[in-house]
Amino acid sequence: MPVITNIQDLKRIYERRVPRMFFDYTESGSWTEQTFRDNTGDYGQIRLRQKVAVDMSGRSTATQMIGRDVSMPVALAPVGLTGMQHADGEIKAARAAEAFGVPFTLSTMSINSIEEVAAATTTPFWFQLYAMNDTDYTRRLIQRAKDAGCSALVITLDLQILGQRHKDLKNGLSAPPKMTPKTIANLMTKWRWGIGMLGASRRDFGNIVGHVDGITDNTSLSSWTNEQFDLTLDWAKIEKLMGQWGGKVILKGIQEADDAKMAAKIGADAIIVSNHGGRQLDGALSSIRSLTPILDAVGDKIEVHIDGGIRSGQDVLKAIAMGAKGTYIGRSFIYGLGAMGQAGVTKALELIHRELDVTMALCGENNLAALGRHNLLIPKGFEGDWQD
Length: 388
Hints:
This protein is of the alpha/beta class and 388 residues long. It is 43% helix and 11% strand.
């Protein structure tokens, strides 16, 4: 086993071990992938300010996200098909997050079901919801999350219509994978993944199969999901979903200040500044560039979190120093999961935590609350000087 020093080391192992269609599903954006690239690249434009001759002892990265104590301001983002990256992937990722003291968010489009993840963990996790046309299914899904003890509902707002992801279309992405000659040839080189999948508790969408009438195979599931995303989703419907839940709500997919103001107005507990990992509107600003105008618009009226492009603890520190109260990693933990299962997710969290802790110390701070824009060198016009 090679020495693993950063997230990129995990990514290289991940690429060798996981079938191409699932690697491409993770490592791609929509259309030209401009926003996908900018999400990571724009963090590199922000520089750090070193501070010396300060007491670095007694450091802590602990904080809270929507009132929950966390060991660092990092949550595992909802990622569809996680159980196709590694056998029982959602369960293993949730267990790693629980042990590390950070939140895990289960996707509606997960392989392991809400109930399976709840049975395998003891700490309440968060559940991510897509707005669907089938309101009865949505109502039952929300109730299932309540019954499982989920402590927050994350409502995704930026997937009323699916962005075109060229690699997924070319690969014929499905769960489990369709056995085309191309796929079979690739799977023959991924024996470790295949052996693991033989022992998986589930290989289909656990929150859907068995919970929707008429869903019996991949063909019927694909047809159903293509028709289900609610094109008519508006703020009134979002309020209705929040009312059905009745607990803490995080709204995911906010890129504009006006939308952030509306989220605060209707009483959400937090928003996630997010462009869906560059997988929806290509050409949109990166999440980190979008952060400051949103913070300026809502102040402390609502907790502001961010996802997209975070590959290190330094990225986490930059987001927190700019004013975010929490961050989410998706690809970073998937690299670890695909590379090494639960141990790989733990390794990803350890890497990010150590980078965050060491960087905070070298910036002359002992705790996250002390971080601010004074710790950063942000290029002039970083948020853009755009024509109205």
